UniProtKB/TrEMBL annotation, chain B:
Domain Response regulatory: 4-120
Pfam families tied to this protein: Response_reg
Keyword Phosphoprotein in annotation: yes
Protein name: Two-component system chemotaxis response regulator CheY
UniProt keyword annotations, A-Z: Phosphoprotein
Modified residues (4-aspartylphosphate): D53
Biological process annotations from GO: phosphorelay signal transduction system
Upper lineage: Bacteria, Pseudomonadati, Pseudomonadota, Alphaproteobacteria, Hyphomicrobiales
SMART domains: REC
């Protein structure tokens, strides 16, 4: 793994943290005051900041830092997370997301916006909070805690000083340093007396001294006078102290840095040699003592070594009370601890273990590269096909069906189906991330339009295949924009109508009969049918005297180029109409409907397949070829009677179904499977709903049956073929093409499919 | 024998950086995602030194350090805290909980290895 891969992981993680951040803030906005929610929000920003720092993403770090500081105020109850505060925070979350994206993909952010938010965040942190010492402190360069000057006469329990044998150090080497000939490195006298806490926190005097020795020439003396006799000795106490002389050009700060971890748990005095030499240096003869580092690599003979020998004694001291005091700790300790402690703590431990397990079970996930899952799904697809082929050949070769083989096959079929379902479930993901992105869209549009909007999401945990999720965001974003921009009224108007000035947009997801249904409802004005109708007439979409039902008028908005906003607004009028939304939903194998009540709002209902990997299809024969028609497109099938077929123009034919006429489309002719139209009476008509809402009757020769097929991309394996959506492999091993109903229907309207491509060859 | 380091951090990014840095420096690395998991794997991991984050879900760094210090076998193990803040108050808390030392983020491989070497023999 290299830094680039880690960076990639960082950005993935950022996405998760941003989602966590937003959902947390939204929960707070809904009145959730669980401290863990605040903690989770804080941690999300904190994590992003930590990672960003490691990659030197300074913009991200500085924004995250300000954000974090303000969140810390909330966390420590210095700032009440009111709606206004949360508004700023949600916006900040958006900016943080932008900064993350910029850090990953390049580009630039709205500097003014992020600066503005930094100001607002700082105001929040400073305004309510007591002059927050924390904010500036954290920004300041690593402020060193003042070293506890042990200069004050130490309340040392151990008699000291008298027993010292002062140690000299050699100045001989001083001239030797080529670059330091003029600057003579100063010599420091260090008195270092650890407290027992130093050892209990895992520090080790010997290691500190070793570290110190790297700074320069050093001589050292250990005072062991305080060491009592073995019987009186407390194995955990600190009895040794050291006097060190070190000559170093690294400065006093470097020396203090060595003791940085220990400075609170020892008495430490550092003086430059000049200060002391007058007294100490002259009075006492000094002997240079060579400091042998190798001894440090051996077992230290200090208090810790002894402490370890005394382990059993101390182990007994682990009281039941102590064990019980920390539930989580028991869970791990008790399960492996020696039997006697275990017995004592057993009930508590059992309970604790349950808690711990429950907690960890909730979040047990693994991360798998999507490619691997795709490969697996593909393989299972092959397995399903293979199993179908096997069944078919067994049936063909053994018409009587010896029961054991048949039973085995049936079980195999069941198993394959189960494997397929489970594998699909791996790629299934909750729609939550997409819904969360919508929250941002709503906020932004609300800001721009000056409307007040509340987004309610339901069924966020409804799962659907990742491939579907990825393609859902765009149409949804557009629909949300529309709902806020066109659907909801301005607050004044809402008040005038006796509505809550705050508009509501409700986004719901649920599973219904093997599909996912997503509903987007607003409580706005609803579709203005008069206006829509007029517009449709103006745009020559309908005749001026057309007699349309309310539903038909509502569905006019899905027509290409239709926009009812009097002025094309900044938001929705981005050249994308509801027709594009409808098309992208249909491309996903989905349907979209609208129902609207004037003055009460509109509801858009989308129904989508749970996966794009398999499809329920009707297997049909057309001119000797086997085709699959997606079941979702088919409204009904019927056997046309001669009396129901009517000619229209040169080659068009219509079929009358329950007193209405519907164009008859010969699939074989459209796909160039045959040169002349087949006789409708000899075939079957599939009534399909197509883009634009119109119905068509597709003529095929015969229906073979209905089955679930595994979709194989034609583009990936061959090339795009007009009129064909994809391919699949049937039980008999033959390739069957999956019909692109919309393309066939539009071809029948006089937009021919490219004729040069021979479909028979592809089949 | 390779020295064993147990790292406890909820950030996948930081975990990966620790892993790469420590492995490159010749350490054996065992990783946990939060304090609870850190305590769970402690015995099995049997580390020579621990590097832990402070802000973590379920059980934070302070709680984790206290937990380790209560374990008779590991009560004197060196524990380094990896923090974003150089904030004295937080250092203080970490120290009270029993931290041996700390490394201030942004993550710097040299600083990390130096600090680990400072507390391990």
């Amino acid at each position: 793994m290299d830094m680039n891969e880690i960076k990639e992981i960082f950005f993935q993680e950022c996405e998760e943290q941003l989602a966590e951040l937003e959902s947390g803030l939204l929960r707070l906005n809904d009145g959730d005051r669980d401290p863990e929610t605040v903690n989770a929000v804080f941690r999300a920003v904190h994590s992003i900041k930590g990672g960003a720092g490691a990659f030197g993403l300074d913009d991200l770090v500085s924004f995250a830092h300000v954000f974090e500081t303000t969140l810390d105020c909330v966390r420590s109850n210095r700032l009440e997370p009111t709606q206004d505060v949360l508004k700023v925070m949600l916006k900040s979350a958006d900016v943080l997301a932008d900064l993350t994206n910029v850090a990953r993909d390049g580009g630039s952010v709205d500097q003014a916006r992020s600066k503005q938010l930094i100001r607002e965040l700082e105001a929040l942190a400073n305004g309510e909070a007591p002059p927050a010492a924390e904010a500036p402190a954290a920004k300041a360069p690593a402020a060193k805690a003042p070293a506890p000057k042990a200069a004050a006469p130490a309340p040392a329990p151990v008699p000291n000083e008298e027993g010292f044998v002062p140690v000299t150090f050699s100045f001989d080497d001083f001239g030797g340093e080529e670059e330091e000939v003029i600057m003579v490195a100063p010599t420091y006298e260090i008195s270092f007396k650890p407290k027992s806490d130093l050892y209990s926190k895992g520090n080790e005097a010997a290691l500190l001294l070793r570290d110190l020795s790297r700074l320069g020439e050093m001589s050292i003396h250990c005072n062991m006078d305080a060491l009592p006799s073995l019987e009186q000795m407390d194995p955990e106490a600190a009895y040794f102290s050291w006097k060190i002389s070190i000559t170093s050009d690294k400065g006093e700060d470097a020396i203090r840095a060595v003791f940085e971890f220990a400075e609170w748990d020892c008495e430490l005095e550092i003086t430059t040699a000049e200060d002391t030499s007058a007294e100490a240096g002259e009075e006492l003869p000094m002997q240079p003592v060579p400091f042998d580092l190798s001894i440090l690599d051996e077992e230290p003979a200090g208090p810790i070594g002894i402490a370890e020998e005394e382990e059993q004694i101390a182990a007994a001291a682990v009281s039941a009370a102590e064990v019980a005091s920390n539930v989580v700790q028991i869970a791990s300790a008790a399960s492996r601890a020696p039997a006697e402690t275990k017995a004592a703590a057993a009930p508590a431990a059992a309970a604790a273990q349950n808690t711990a397990q429950a907690a960890s079970a909730a979040g047990q996930t693994i991360r798998v590269d999507l490619d691997r899952v795709d490969r697996l799904i593909n393989l299972v697809g092959e397995l399903v096909i293979n199993q179908a082929m096997l069944s078919q050949s067994v049936i063909e070769n053994d018409a009587n069906g010896t029961s054991s083989i048949n039973m085995g096959l049936e079980e195999l079929q069941q198993l394959t189906r189960e494997i397929q379902d489970s594998v699909m479930a791996i790629r299934a993901q909750p729609v939550k991330p997409v819904f969360q992105r919508m929250a941002r869209t709503v906020r932004e549009i609300a800001d721009i339009t000056g409307k007040s909007v509340r987004l309610i999401t339901e069924g966020e945990n409804t799962e659907v295949d990742k491939t579907v999720i990825d393609k859902l965001a765009e149409p949804l974003t557009h629909m949300i924009r529309n709902a806020v921009d066109h659907g909801l009224e301005m607050p004044e108007k809402r008040i005038a109508q006796g509505k809550n000035p705050e508009g509501t947009v409700r986004l719901t997801a649920k599973h219904r009969s093997g599909r996912i249904v997503i509903e987007l409802a607003d409580d706005g004005a609803g579709i203005n049918r008069e206006k829509v109708r007029q517009k449709a007439i103006d745009n020559d979409l309908i005749a001026a005297d057309a007699n349309l039902s309310d539903e038909e008028i509502d569905n006019l908005i899905f027509h290409a180029g239709f926009s009812t906003a009097d002025k094309v607004s900044d938001l929705s009028g981005r050249g994308v109409g509801m027709d594009v939304v409808k098309r992208s939903i249909q491309a996903l194998g989905g349907r979209i409907n609208i129902s609207s009540k004037p003055g009460q709002g509109s509801v858009f209902t989308m129904s989508l397949p749970l996966t794009l990997a398999v499809l329920d299809g009707m297997v049909v024969t057309v001119a000797g070829q086997t085709l699959v028609v997606p079941l979702t497109a088919i409204v009904e099938t019927l056997q046309p009677e001669a009396s129901a077929i009517h000619s229209f123009g040169a080659s068009q034919r219509l079929i009358s179904i329950r007193n209405s006429f519907c164009p008859l489309v010969d699939v074989g002719r459209i796909l160039n499977f045959r040169a002349t139209q087949a006789n409708p009476v000899e075939g079957v008509a599939l009534l399909v709903e197509s883009e634009g809402g119109g119905q068509r009757a597709l003529m095929v020769d015969a229906i073979q049956g209905q089955r679930q097929v595994v979709i194989k991309s034609l583009e990936a394996n061959y090339t795009h073929v007009p009129g064909i959506a994809a391919a699949t492999i049937l039980g008999d091993g033959r390739v069957a093409l999956i019909l692109d109903v919309d393309a066939v229907v539009s071809a029948s309207r006089g937009q021919p499919l490219k004729p040069e491509i021979s479909l028979a060859a592809a089949g | 024998m390779k020295k064993k380091v147990l790292t406890v951090d909820d950030s996948r990014t930081i975990r990966n950086m620790l892993l790469v840095t420590l492995n490159n420096a010749g350490f054996e690395t065992i990783q946990a995602e939060d304090g609870v998991e850190g305590l769970e794997v402690l015995e099995e991991a049997n580390p020579d030194v621990i590097v832990t984050d402070i802000n973590m879900p379920r059980l934070d760094g302070f709680g984790f350090i206290e937990g380790v210090r209560r374990n008779e076998k590991y009560r004197a193990i060196p524990i380094l805290v990896l923090t974003t803040e150089s904030d004295a108050e937080k250092k203080n808390r970490a120290r009270q909980a029993g931290a041996t030392g700390w490394i201030v983020k942004p993550f710097d491989p040299t600083k990390l290895i130096d600090a680990i070497e400072r507390v391990t023999a």
